[in-house]
Amino acid sequence: MDKIVVKGGKKLSGTVRVSGAKNSALPIMAACLLGSEKSVLEGVPNLRDVQTMCRLLRVIGARVIFENDRLEITPFSKMKPVAPYHLVSTMRASVCVLGPLLARLGSAQVSLPGGCVIGARPIDLHLKGLQALGAQIQISHGDVYAGTKGKLQGKEIYLGGAFGSSVLATANVMMAATLAHGVTLIENAASEPEVVDLADFLNKMGAKIEGHGSHLIKIQGVRKLHGANHTIIPDRIEAGTFMVAAAITKGDVTVQNCEPEHLNALIDKLQQAGVSVKRSKGSVRVSRKGRLKPIDVTALPYPGFPTDLQAQIMALMAVTPGISVITEKIYPDRFMHVSELNRMGCRIFLEGSSAIVNGVQKISGAPVMASDLRASAALVLAGLAGEGETHVSRIYHLDRGYERIEEKLSSLGADIRRAKE
Ligand code: UD1
């Protein structure tokens, strides 16, 4: 197993280029199963999760060629509509083959993803939406069996749960509805940029989707979808992680290939904290000279502050003297990084779904353990600010979502390397 070794204290400076968005690429790859021909995706990040989705599509029945950041997916005329447990258990996003398989083949068997370290992650909304379209769903021996007699039927569906909208449930239902008979209205749809990117791709395949980006999506079903070419949007979470890296090291970094509009919530919070953020077309420049100020942050669905940047902003507030309160409204238990940050000298206390961050002047490097993807990024960020060396182990989590992060950070002047445990 690999670990990351970071020696803190270097100011980051220069330019870094963000890769394509993992959370866009994964459902779009699943959507390729809806087409009868080859689709070509560009700007695809070479990540462990993307490789897992490639394996899943091959198991189902598609020719998949991945070179550099270009991915060709050609579904076979005969597919096996099964997503097995060994793949779904390593990557929850596998569940987004459910909608396309059901719509295209009339049946699907997908293992239940179960929970994960950031908390319970049910798929009841995915199933509710597909049932509303006429699917019969059964759960047996840990697998979801979905089937339909004839075509799915368009329907008005309210897709809300206890925590508001769901990104992948919206994606699954939207994909299934593209080939349904009649019109589907998804109310309380997720409005994340990755949902918009998926809808744009589906429209290029011949789907008729309107309203994506709002909470009401209208899908007029069509008979058939073809292949399409598409470039994946930049990863706003990777961009946000580099922005926090600039702020935490008192650096000056230009983050290229990003969409500043997708980062408004983070930009607002960084500016409140006293960080300078300058937007340009396709890039942001983040620099800090003076002291930081504590801020309160609540993770919410888009356009609110993203839960996938909650751990990273907490690392920044942990080294900002004063009290900051960070509240998680999407995954109330997503605080595995707290105890590891505290091993480095941070003073963070949990109070229900909030973390009270008592920011300190200095933290020190320590051996720490990554528990999930974004928590790992927070530990690397803290390592950049800590005195001495931080060893972040179990970085296979990091490799699920960040492409060559140690190379990108060292090109900005960080003292960081990958090593064997
Ligand atoms: C996606 C992202 C993930 C991000 C999350 C929230 C991908 C591959 N992953 O995950 O990185 O953290 O959005 O922005 O795109 N829920 C239910 N029932 C359901 C589905 C969800 O109760 O059927 C709850 C979840 O437990 C959570 C909330 O809804 O509390 C939002 O989750 P959701 O938007 O579905 O997350 P994902 O789409 O799985």
TrEMBL record:
<feature type="binding site">
    <location>
        <position position="92"/>
    </location>
    <ligand>
        <name>UDP-N-acetyl-alpha-D-glucosamine</name>
    </ligand>
</feature>
<protein>
    <recommendedName>
        <fullName>UDP-N-acetylglucosamine 1-carboxyvinyltransferase</fullName>
        <ecNumber>2.5.1.7</ecNumber>
    </recommendedName>
</protein>
<keyword id="KW-0963">Cytoplasm</keyword>
<keyword id="KW-0132">Cell division</keyword>
<dbReference type="GO" id="GO:0008760">
    <property type="term" value="F:UDP-N-acetylglucosamine 1-carboxyvinyltransferase activity"/>
</dbReference>
<comment type="function">
    <text>Cell wall formation. Adds enolpyruvyl to UDP-N-acetylglucosamine.</text>
</comment>
<feature type="binding site">
    <location>
        <begin position="22"/>
        <end position="23"/>
    </location>
    <ligand>
        <name>phosphoenolpyruvate</name>
    </ligand>
</feature>
<dbReference type="InterPro" id="IPR013792">
    <property type="entry name" value="RNA3'P_cycl/enolpyr_Trfase_a/b"/>
</dbReference>
<keyword id="KW-0133">Cell shape</keyword>
<keyword id="KW-0808">Transferase</keyword>
<dbReference type="GO" id="GO:0005737">
    <property type="term" value="C:cytoplasm"/>
</dbReference>
<dbReference type="GO" id="GO:0019277">
    <property type="term" value="P:UDP-N-acetylgalactosamine biosynthetic process"/>
</dbReference>
<comment type="pathway">
    <text>Cell wall biogenesis; peptidoglycan biosynthesis.</text>
</comment>
<keyword id="KW-0961">Cell wall biogenesis/degradation</keyword>
<dbReference type="InterPro" id="IPR050068">
    <property type="entry name" value="MurA_subfamily"/>
</dbReference>
<feature type="binding site">
    <location>
        <position position="308"/>
    </location>
    <ligand>
        <name>UDP-N-acetyl-alpha-D-glucosamine</name>
    </ligand>
</feature>
<dbReference type="GO" id="GO:0071555">
    <property type="term" value="P:cell wall organization"/>
</dbReference>
<dbReference type="InterPro" id="IPR001986">
    <property type="entry name" value="Enolpyruvate_Tfrase_dom"/>
</dbReference>
<dbReference type="InterPro" id="IPR036968">
    <property type="entry name" value="Enolpyruvate_Tfrase_sf"/>
</dbReference>
<feature type="binding site">
    <location>
        <position position="330"/>
    </location>
    <ligand>
        <name>UDP-N-acetyl-alpha-D-glucosamine</name>
    </ligand>
</feature>
<keyword id="KW-0670">Pyruvate</keyword>
<feature type="domain" description="Enolpyruvate transferase">
    <location>
        <begin position="6"/>
        <end position="409"/>
    </location>
</feature>
<dbReference type="GO" id="GO:0008360">
    <property type="term" value="P:regulation of cell shape"/>
</dbReference>
<feature type="active site" description="Proton donor">
    <location>
        <position position="116"/>
    </location>
</feature>
<feature type="modified residue" description="2-(S-cysteinyl)pyruvic acid O-phosphothioketal">
    <location>
        <position position="116"/>
    </location>
</feature>
<keyword id="KW-0131">Cell cycle</keyword>
<feature type="binding site">
    <location>
        <begin position="121"/>
        <end position="125"/>
    </location>
    <ligand>
        <name>UDP-N-acetyl-alpha-D-glucosamine</name>
    </ligand>
</feature>
<dbReference type="InterPro" id="IPR005750">
    <property type="entry name" value="UDP_GlcNAc_COvinyl_MurA"/>
</dbReference>
<comment type="similarity">
    <text>Belongs to the EPSP synthase family. MurA subfamily.</text>
</comment>
<dbReference type="GO" id="GO:0051301">
    <property type="term" value="P:cell division"/>
</dbReference>
<dbReference type="Pfam" id="PF00275">
    <property type="entry name" value="EPSP_synthase"/>
</dbReference>
<dbReference type="GO" id="GO:0009252">
    <property type="term" value="P:peptidoglycan biosynthetic process"/>
</dbReference>
<keyword id="KW-0573">Peptidoglycan synthesis</keyword>
